[in-house]
Amino acid sequence: MRMRWRVCVVAVTLALAACLMAAVVVAQQTAFAFATITVADTAIAIPNATRHDSVQGYATYCAGRLEGGPIRYRYDGGTPTAAVGELLYEDERIEILGSRNILRFSAIRTTGVSGSLSITCGR
Hints:
Blueprint: H1 2-27, E1 31-39, E2 44-45, H2 48-51, E3 52-53, E4 57-58, E5 61-68, E6 71-74, E7 86-88, E8 93-97, H3 99-104, E9 106-109, E10 115-122
Antiparallel strand pairs: 1-10, 2-9, 3-4, 5-8, 5-10, 6-7, 6-9
């Protein structure tokens, strides 16, 4: 019985530590731009004015939520299609870390319904 209790305590402690580490990463970011991107039948990137600030430079963190239809996205430099790319459904969140990934990000809708991606970027 004691061994199970210790394993449970260790698991809860590790989970809590992971949550706290994620919260620290977000807390260290300073947002400088927001945009609502309509994701239609042609692949679209995050606008330069959203991912770049003349004072702070390029964003290293972007996060947002999708409304409307599902989309596919890539941030490896390739172009997503309705059948290729990572899938994001309505009301799901996306987080993109790293200025190169943000620069390479592009998305396209997967159905006849366009998605609306509200996204905030910062450093």
